[in-house]
Every structure is written in structure tokens, then in C-alpha cells.
Amino acid sequence: MALTKTVSKYGVEFASAYHRITNLDYYVNEYAMTQFVEQAPDADGNPVAPVEEEIVTVTKQANVTVRTYADAAARTERAEPIASKVFSFTPDWESTDNVLAQGYAYLKTLTEFDGAVDA
User: What is the mean pLDDT of residues 34-46?
Assistant: First the structure.
């Protein structure tokens, strides 16, 4: 899997630049916080003290490192990439697409990869 899209770098235009996810990691961060929740007045209209409530928050995020090569042949020949950048997104853990496929789909939503084609 990869994407191709023209990119300019170092004053040179790479018409068949090859963008490949080379690293993918994800994390799940779960933490609890105590929050005070206001209560409705009692039947007589008197105020009721707030109640402590524990709120559990779960953050799930994926990070992908995209390395850009001059073209597919440069990647195959293990040439040095001309660029490398990390992107973060929130995967759909219920999706039938794996996280890597979701990473490429996410990249195509970014202006930087507008018009990119699957390679």
C-alpha cells in the first residue's frame, strides 16, 4: 500500500512521489475523573448538594509515519526518503478496514494529499 502524488522538495518537482506509511502505532488512554453533578431541587424547591460522579474517559488514537520517496523505484531500491512526517487520527475500531487502510484513507482527506492515487 502507498500513495502517489506530485510533490516539490528542494526546488525539484517529483512527479511520481511515493508516499508510504512506514510506522503505525496506536494507543488507548483510559482515565477516571471525579466530577460534581448539579442536582435538581427537592420536592419543596430546596437546593440539593451536588453529587460526586466518576467519569471514565477513553482516548483512542493512531499515529502514522509517512515517508516520501522520489518514486516507487527509489523506495524499492531502499533510497533515502526525501521527506518524513507523522500524522495522527482517530481510528474507527468498529470498521471492517484495518487501521493501516484507515490510515491511508485518512491521509487522502488531507489537503497535503489531495488528488493522491493508490499505488
Answer: 93
3-class SS string, the chain: CCEECCEEECCEEECCCEEEEEEEEEEEEEEEEEEEECCCCCCCCCCCCCEEEEEEEEEEEEEEEEEEECCHHHHHCCCCCCEEEEEEECCCCCCCCCHHHHHHHHHCCCHHHCCCEEC
At 93 the pLDDT is 87
Residue 108 has pLDDT above 90, yes or no: yes
The residue type found at 59 is T
pLDDT computed for residue 51 by the predictor: 94
Q: How far apart are CA 116 and CA 85, in angstroms?
A: 16
